[in-house]
Amino acid sequence: MNAKQPEPSGLITISDRKTVSMNGVIDVLSFDETGVTLSTALGMLSIEGEELRVKKMDIEAGIVALEGTINGVFYFDRTASPRRGLFGRRK
């Protein structure tokens, strides 16, 4: 019996710019209090903010939740590196 692979999920929920939760996370590539870079089922994802901290992380389930001030959420090409700052160009 050949099981059908589930579709990639990428639900991101931001509440009051204070919390962000997401599914479809494959790996956390970098993390500090101003930004997180994640590999997700739908591509590379960068979350920028201030005083970011992990609220929940379950990589096996693909779930990550963060607290802090959320300033931006950006997807980017796997070949491009995320650019931080006001004038960073996003793809």
Topology:
Layout: E1 12-15, E2 19-22, E3 25-32, E4 35-40, E5 43-58, E6 63-76
Antiparallel strand pairs: 1-2, 2-6, 3-4, 4-5, 5-6
Task: Describe the fold and architecture.
By secondary structure, the chain is mainly beta. It has strands spanning 12-15, 19-22, 25-32, 35-40, 43-58, 63-76. A six-stranded antiparallel beta sheet has the order 1-2-6-5-4-3, with no helix packed on it. The chain is globular, with a radius of gyration of 14 Å. It starts with 11 loop residues before the first strand and ends in a 15-residue tail after the last strand. Residues 85-91 have low confidence and may be disordered.
Give keywords.
91 residues, mainly beta, Immunoglobulin-like, 0% helix, globular
Short description, anyone?
By secondary structure, this protein is an all-beta fold. 0% of the residues lie in helices and 57% in strands.
